[in-house]
Specification:
Helices cover about 0% and strands about 50% of the residues of chain A. Chain A has about 110 residues and is mostly beta strands. The chains are: A mainly beta (about 110), B mainly beta (about 110). The interface of A and B includes residues 40, 43, 50, 90 and 98 of A.
Chain lengths: ~110, ~110
């Protein structure tokens, strides 16, 4: 079955360490997205990529970086510059501009 | 003012009852609208798109009011399994930017 796989499901890191969250999709979607969800808030867009080798900053890109070397993969690195990294991170993709998003099952990151 | 606003709830609903709630949006150029369902600590899943004339999917009915800039979701004959947070999503812009509401929590009780 096609879908989006995020790993790991839970991630614990010490403050000051960079950490990379994995996102792989086999839906053949061009566009991929990273969102962050905090309690009581809507999803906020971190980065998005509409095509391989291209990506754009979203609304809250500071402290994050991404790459898009393959269509299937869109990893997110949470750097030590991100002031409040503890959150639920969701990767998503969609077939085209008019299609709804499909989400991965998320990574819950805790930084202490 | 937030671009997409929802009543956070919770809406406590007896099993079998009807519940309805709205989502207001500020951008009059909004193009498409969706309702997603999110269970506790899980990813959001598409419940239904919202069409201009309104649409129904089983016990769920979605409406769009462009003049007043809101969409609504109505759940009939509520089931315990309908307990979740319902996210409103609005699309606008040249690349289809999606804006999420913070969600409305629905709790269906026996």
């Amino acid at each position: 079955d096609g879908g989006i796989t995020q790993s790991p499901k839970y991630l614990f890191r010490k403050e000051g360490q960079n950490v990379t969250l994995s996102c792989e999709q086999n839906l053949n979607h061009d566009a991929m997205y990273w969102y962050r969800q905090d309690p009581g808030q809507g999803l906020r867009l971190i980065y998005y990529s509409q095509i391989v080798n291209d990506f754009q900053k979203g609304d809250i890109a500071e402290g994050y970086s991404v790459s898009r070397e393959k269509k299937e993969s869109f990893p997110l690195t949470v750097t030590s510059a991100q002031k409040n990294p503890t959150a639920f991170y969701l990767c998503a993709s969609r077939a085209d501009y008019n299609s709804p998003l499909h989400f991965g099952n998320g990574t819950r990151l805790t930084v202490t | 003012r937030k671009e997409v606003e929802q009543d956070p709830g919770p809406f406590n609903v007896p099993e079998g009852a009807t519940v309805a709630f709205n989502c207001t949006y500020s951008n009059s150029a909004s193009q498409s609208f969706f309702w997603y369902r999110q269970d506790c600590r899980k990813e959001p899943k598409l419940l239904m798109s919202v069409y201009s004339s309104g649409n129904e999917d089983g016990r769920f009915t979605a409406q769009l009011n462009r003049a007043s800039q809101y969409i609504s979701l109505l759940i009939r004959d509520s089931k315990l399994s309908d307990s979740a947070t319902y996210l409103c999503v609005v699309k606008w812009g040249s690349w289809g930017k999606l804006q999420f509401g913070a969600g409305t929590q629905v709790v269906v009780t026996p």
